[in-house]
TrEMBL record:
Record organism: Streptomyces atratus
Protein name: Chromosome segregation protein Spo0J, contains ParB-like nuclease domain
Region (Disordered): 202-250
Domain ParB-like N-terminal span(s) in chain numbering: 19-103
Pro residues compositional bias, start-end: 235-245
Length: 334
């Protein structure tokens, strides 16, 4: 039994028996491979005389979870069907299964792929422990912990699921503080959404929301560590993130969803992902897919004595990208 077999039991049902499925019914994977499939690996599989092992497919969406290279190889061979095992769990769990499968066998995921996958799993499964996510992605628990800190700050959930699938409770006061911050960031978020991210029950989230409305501390005084005796200490609710001043605002940017979609489209272009220069350009662009709320956290973390220098560097980098954009537009306008 592998270290995370117990964990996968908590993520959803087991795989179905193998069955033959028409290739035309299957959709491309929601793959952890940000640069898409490797054409050379597909060709090697297609030219091999060995039968292709079954692929894993998410039954509700018919998207491939594991085996996209094998599916493309089967198409290359001219096959009309391929052997499939179905997974019937939710989409979020399907992605976790895809990461685990691609880390464990086949063409290995790059470090960038595994790092990006860990960041996504931290958001979709915040109740998984650092060690559990590390075992799934092939990263160190320290690396996953650093990613969690960047995503959610120093506060932690009230419980975590370990590699063995067992739930281990942590300090519930931490979960309440996470919920208070999430409510401040998005007052319209549902109780269940906040509860899942904070690792507490919807009822507890409701209590935190009511306390914030009254101006009370989200953590009851009896839960405060080191408190000599209960006290009715009031505190103002956490302030939502303050938008930048009007004179610092820039022209409307492409929405984050559109940037991500365009980047994925470029990653699938063979003329980019199959050349060294193209891959370098894709890696450079990937750095700028950071979401707006993460930029605000970065700004808050910059030491005051470095602010001017970093601002100057950011402006200089932006000017370099603007020059590149202008050069790329020149042939089209000529």
């Amino acid at each position: 039994m592998s270290p995370h077999d117990g964990l996968l039991v908590t993520l959803g049902p087991e795989l179905s028996a193998v069955e033959a499925v028409p290739i035309g019914l299957l959709l491309r994977a929601d793959s952890p491979r940000r640069l898409g499939e490797n054409d050379e690996h597909v060709r090697a599989l297609a030219e091999s005389e060995e039968p292709l092992p079954p692929i894993v497919v998410h039954r509700p969406s018919m998207r491939v979870i594991d085996g996209m290279h094998r599916l493309l190889a089967a198409r290359w061979r001219g096959s009309s069907e391929i052997e499939v095992q179905f997974f019937d769990g939710p989409t979020e769990d399907a992605f976790v299964l895809a990461v685990r499968a691609n880390v464990g066998h086949g063409l290995p995921l790059s470090l960038a792929d595994r790092t990006a996958a860990a960041a996504r799993i931290i958001h979709s499964h915040p109740d998984l422990s650092d060690r559990a996510i590390a075992s799934l992605t092939g990263l160190s628990a320290k690396t996953v912990g650093a990613q969690r800190l960047r995503a959610f700050g120093p506060l932690q959930q009230s419980a975590r699921i370990g590699r063995d699938g067992r739930v281990r409770p942590l300090n519930s006061a931490q979960g309440r503080r996470i919920a208070a911050r999430l409510i401040a960031e998005d007052p319209t978020a549902s109780l269940r959404t906040i509860a899942r991210k904070a690792g507490i029950s919807p009822g507890t989230v409701r209590d935190v929301r009511e306390r914030l409305k009254r101006g009370d501390n989200p953590v009851p005084s009896r839960r405060q560590p080191g408190s000599p005796k209960p006290a009715s200490k009031r505190m103002p609710p956490p302030r939502p993130a303050t938008p930048p001043p009007a004179h610092h605002r820039y022209p409307a940017r492409m929405p984050a969803e559109a940037r991500e979609a365009m980047f994925r489209s470029l990653c699938r272009d063979p003329s980019l992902r199959m050349t060294e220069t193209g891959r370098l350009l894709l890696r450079m662009m990937e750095l700028h897919l950071t979401e707006d709320h993460q930029w605000h956290r970065i700004v808050e973390a910059v030491p005051a004595h470095c602010a001017d220098s970093i601002s100057a560097m950011a402006t200089a980098c932006a000017e370099v990208w603007q020059e590149l954009a202008a050069l790329l537009r020149e042939p089209a306008s000529a």
